[in-house]
Amino acid sequence: MYIFNHSREKLQPKISPWLIYIAYILGFWIILPFYFGRLIIKGQENIPKNGSVIVTPSHRSRWDALIIPYAVGRVASGQDLNFMVSSSEMKGIQGWFIRKLGGFPINSKQLIGGGLDHSIEILKKEKMLVIFPEGGIFRGSQVRTLKRGTAHIVIDVKYQQPSNTVKILPISIQYSKFFPSWRTKVVVNIGLPMDITIYDFQDTKNDSERLTYELESHLKRLHTRHNIFEELNCT
Questions:
Q1: What sections of the protein cross the membrane (predicted)?
Q2: How many angstroms separate the Cα of 202 from the Cα of each of 69, 100, 115, 139, 146?
Q3: Distance CA 154, CA 53 (A)
Q4: What whole-number distance in Å separates Cα of residue 125 and Cα of residue 152?
Q5: What does the domain layout of the chain look like in residue ranges?
Q6: pLDDT of residue 86
Q7: Topology classification of domain 17-226
């Protein structure tokens, strides 16, 4: 099993309800509508309303961190989101704000440590966790080969809490420009939650490979729909 190091000090949640409330107002009613030419969300009926959920979006821009809460956060699901954030982004005043808004640091080069332990604890408490499974921002229309971190976390949660039916929610974010600028159009396509009950989690290496491949396939199907901007009259 991919058992992470639980002897390290766990990260304590430091989400600020009032700051999140202000951020939602600014983001929903001012920043996103003002900056983008059009922002369309498809598939919100697919968002699980309860239980442990790993939200796994494609990652094309820093704007994704604002768009995902808009698409699946408090207003859409009734839940605040917890974000994995690169430890390099968690410094100074920026790091303070990120922590207060649900972010916590993760060292992407390690499979042990407080950040991953905290991810597991979030899911054991049946909350929503956001992971960008490509591992970074990638411009362009193609989904990159995914990291196996999502699968490892699912396996460890199932090992510690076998009754926990973790749901994985694939999401495609597409911009009409590779480098989103003023009046860029955005389409967010939320897929159906993946069914992990088909895995017995006895062969961890094989299961992590299969789960990662399945997630990648879901993201590619969502992300490469033909003429999506024309279909939605976003040209």
A1: 18-36
A2: 34, 38, 25, 37, 22
A3: 10
A4: 18
A5: 17-226
A6: 83
A7: Glycerol-3-phosphate (1)-acyltransferase (3.40.1130)
